[in-house]
Amino acid sequence: MPLDDRLNPGSTTTEKQIADLEKKIDDLKAEYILFFNGDTKLPPEKKREDLEKAVRKMVYGGSKTARMDMIIQNLAQRFSLYNNMWLKKLNELECGTPAQQKKKRSQAAAPATGKAESGPREIYLTLNDEETFERFAAAYREFIPESGKSAKERDAIIESIKAKMLTNNLVEARVTFSKQNGKLSIRIKK
Predict the structure, then answer these.
(1) Are 118 and 169 members of one domain?
(2) Bigger pLDDT: 150 or 87?
């Protein structure tokens, strides 16, 4: 038996469990992206519930070291962020807020300037407020007027920025638009 295992008998098992849970979170995130994009018909609810139980078990099971406790808490917070977002989106779908009404409201609220700004523009985004993503799509259209006109294009633009935020574990972000040498530059900051 290696010396590390004798000093901390649960370390390897716990690290393997954490790595497995992290992979399951990433897999579940991919499945939800497929569901919300309409590629699959049913949400992976059973997998989400099982993963939620496993994360809770890990959190309440305790750890042998402060370092492992911090890693477990980080994992739990990451799952909680995704879980809350998934449940919110599922609730919106179940409440029957027609997507067409949302799209009509957002298009009416979007500024119709028709010309692209040359200077940089910053937009604040939060996963907790869908309106911030509507402003993001409107700003995107200002810089590239020929894109994002159809609802499908607008949704694709919004979903791509949400996916980038989730990938970087950001609930809130500042996105800066600017045109450099005729190309659109988009930067995401905390």
Answers:
(1) yes
(2) 87
